[in-house]
Structures are given as C-alpha cells and as structure tokens.
Amino acid sequence: MVKTGVIELESIEHGTTATGKISPDGTFVLGTYREDDGAVAGEHRVIVIQMVMNDGVIQHTQDHGEAVPSRYSSYEQSDLRVKVEAKELNDLVIVVASE
Fold this sequence. Notes:
The chain is mainly β and 99 residues long. It has strands at 6-11, 17-21, 42-49, 81-84.
C-alpha cells in the first residue's frame, strides 16, 4: 500500500486537474478549486507522484509503504484511468503495479 505522495487526476473532457495528498492509511481526498471539492465528472487520466529520498545515510522512522514505479508520475507513461460519477461521493481505488 502506498502511504505517502500525491494523486492527480486530469479530466479528459475538461482538461482540469484534481489533486489529493495520500494519507498514511492510503486514502486521499481530491480537490480541483479547493482542497476537498472533488473532481469533475467523467473519465480521467491518473498519475501518482511520490518522493522518498533514501540515500542509505539517514535512518527513516516513517514507513512510506511501497515505492511507486516512476512511470506512474507521467500522464504520457501512466496507464491508470478512472471514471468519476456525478454524485456526492466516489470511492476510487487506484492500483499501481510494481516493476
């Protein structure tokens, strides 16, 4: 499970993006114009951005979860897609494959 990073959805129809910070429990809340106002309805391309520095010198005390393969940080390389429905709450599950 991914425990740190950012999820970003780009609307294929509207071109708007919605972003949400990944919480330690793997959940996220998206925002387009405000931090938690969600994403527009329709099909979206998805990227997962994660930056975990590990040079072996510093002992990390936080469990960052699984590392996200770098291909998921680019709309051109990511094959992730989701559909957001026009309703109050969407439960989106984003699954990234390991390399």
